[in-house]
Amino acid sequence: MKLLIVDDSSIIRGRIARILSDPRLPEIRIIGMARNGVEAVGLSQQFKPELVTMDLTMPEMDGVECTEAIATLNPKVNILIISALSDKATAIKALKKGAKGFLYKPFTDEQLIQAFLEMID
Amino acid sequence: MTLNDIDEHEINVFVDAVVQYFLQITGQKAEVRAAYLAAGETLPPTSEFTGVIKISGDYRGCIYFSADRFLLSRLLLAMNETKHTDDQLLDAVGEIANTLAGNARRHFGEKMEVSIPLTMHGTEAKSLQHMVRARPYVIMVRWKQYEASMIVDIRHDKQ
Asked: A108 and B24: CB-CB below 8 Å?
């Protein structure tokens, strides 16, 4: 399964990448990491990820707009929002734009693993 | 248009956010050592690394999180991150500020708009002025033997 990681924090990008080695997860191959929505849309056009982790608060293009752009390119893509924005309205907006799941920051390794398992079930 | 104060209950939203942040990341809660209203024209003394989130929409002002390299390095270790360069520590302090402000939207709603983080190293944060409150709220926390501060300088912008 091809994964694109989108977050403006290198620490979060690295943390998500490390968790992929958990033996409960199927083989997930990182095809790119993006620091903002513009980079993410470019990488999506180029590599066609099947799974995307998406931050919301980012420079250049925010995560809601980016979710809509990537979901339009590939309606079957599984987009997991990983964001600190904890209000219901934001989650609903992201889901309406094409996200399939939402995980709030701060998250534990276990919560992310479970979120991945639910997304690819 | 007037800027209105936020109440004690709303300040507790930020206290809870910072306590829960440490619990979620490290398994150990941070302890609130002191919470007070700052005096003076500049913000209270901040640590070596500071993350700033600008607030707009129905609220105005800034939220700051500040910590030294030892606390930030320990937090990164808790996330299995072994690189602890200054750039990584700035990234960490910005991400923490962003998370604390974002979590507060559970109470304040989407009309409290949060910026991407600005980060400051060294003495850059020492001369920051109050944004909207004459006396911003200062929340001092201790986690293990390390100390950090969160400063809440926001007001409700009622029409």
From this structure: yes
Top-confidence residue, B37 or B42 = B37
CA separation (Å) from B40 to A35, B53, B130? 38, 21, 9
Whether residues B25 and A59 touch (CB distance < 8 A) is answered with no
The CATH architecture that domain A2-119 belongs to is 3-Layer(aba) Sandwich (3.40)
Contact A59, A36 (CB under 8 A): yes
pLDDT at B34: 92
State pLDDT tens for residues B61-117.
Answer: 999 999 999 999 999 999 999 999 999 999 999 999 999 999 999 999 999 999 999
Domain locations in chain B?
2-158
Q: How far is A44 from chain B (nearest CA, A)?
A: 23
Q: Which of residues 43-82 of B touch A (CB under 8 A)?
A: 76, 79-81
The amino acid at residue B103 is N
Fold adopted by B2-158: Chemotaxis protein chec (3.40.1550)
